[in-house]
Amino acid sequence: MRIRxxxxxxxxxxxxxxxxxxxxxxxxxxxIIMTSGTLYKPILLVPLAVGIxxxxxxxxxxxTGAICGFLIDICCGKxxxxxxxxxxxxxxxxxxxxxxxxxxxxxxxxxITAAAAFLQCWLDYKFYYQIWDYxxxxxxxxxxxxxxxxxxxxxxxxxxxxxxxxxxLLMPREHLTIEEAIxxxxxxxxxx
Amino acid sequence: xxxFLKSTRFKILLGFxxxxxxxxxxxxxKGGYSxxxxxxxxxxxxxxxxxxxxxxxxMEGTVDKLSNADKYYEENQKLKxxxxxxxxxxxxxxxxxxxxxELRKFVSIKEEHEDYMLSQPCGVLxxxxxxxxxxxxxxxxxxxxxxxxxxxxxxxxLVGITVEVSEHVxxxxxxxxxxxxxxxxxxxxxxxxxxxxxxxxxxxxxQTKLIHVPKKNKLKRGDLMITxxxxxxxxxxxxxxxxxxIGLDSNGLSVCADIQPCVDVTRLTSVIVIxxxxxxxxxxxxxx
Lengths: 192, 288
Hints:
The complex is a heterodimer.
Chain A: H1 6-35, H2 45-55, H3 58-76, H4 82-100, H5 106-128, H6 138-170, H7 178-191
Helix pairs in contact in A: 1-2, 1-3, 1-6, 2-3, 2-4, 2-5, 2-6, 3-4, 5-6
Chain B: H1 2-6, H2 8-29, H3 36-67, H4 69-112, E1 117-118, E2 122-127, E3 136-138, E4 151-153, E5 158-165, E6 170-174, E7 181-186, E8 193-197, H5 200-204, E9 208-213, E10 224-227, E11 239-248, E12 255-261, E13 270-276, H6 282-287
């Protein structure tokens, strides 16, 4: 890889800082949305945490997952740290899966988010309702958990678009050497 | 000139003037009512005068607008600002009015139950996200004398109990929750007792359930259920809700009833916490 000039390094640092500031601003806005009103709402922080995790390094993903999890615990009145643990695991897993097996495509993100959100809702139902064996407890899964999961999956489309925009503008791109650029070009020509 | 003064023309004019003066004097004697001639003229000329006046006013208005445009613009801006200020004052007034009404209700609680130690009115910060039993957080905590397991009420009735208390925020579990059981009796007869406990089905419609009522009872629709105060968690004789429907429990051994809480717990803006009352559980006092 080409050695970056000092100016390029400064720009890179500035963009990275700005990107993370926007990520956390989005997290804050999602938290505010989640805490307002009395209707059932999507757990916006799940698609947001997963979306951030798939495009960044594993440590940052884990920390973001934990922070989003803590915020979910606060607004959903759950045991402090419960969702933090779950979301940290999800974020690390999503990061690894995207790094090793999947490409950065919408459909992949959508499937991963849907799975993560489902697991989060299911675990929430298991630990907070079913375990206590309330009468007609199944209704909570059908009428609350599934509704929230559906809302979360739908909201993930918008979250993806916002994150895509932020990443397109502020995510540093890999610099190619002339040789690498030529090789890439040759490979593309060959494919055609 | 001398010729004119001696002429008939002058005499006619003088006579005419005298006639006019005479009319004037006559008009004075009418005490404010117009003489018939004037009235006739007024009637005849009225539409023409109205039309002419209208045109002239319009023209004057147009000229005025053009000549005083700057002045009017400034005045308009000033008035707009004034309206904004008045609207803000009105909003503030409405908020204060609502607050005063709310406080008046809370004062009535203290008047009715002198043994209660009440917290300051607590604003509802928000409902716990996606909680089917409508738990909520309030803006007062341990710094305001609130402890865990303090009853939360409004002037209308019981709302729930504090379950998590931090310095400035507390979480309230409502009577819709299956995790909160309140011993209750009918206000008409203390013999008819049962437990009011939330239920998944009932909570969907903002109701709760009265369970474990003996088969032999005199409960009927519309009966008001109040707290018994036996547990020491809730004060005695505080309204909870009214009976909507009565039926047999699923086990067939006891009677249950649907209860419509006195308070719509899904739309609360402020509540009050009873921090102490006579008959409160001793354990809590020891913990203090």
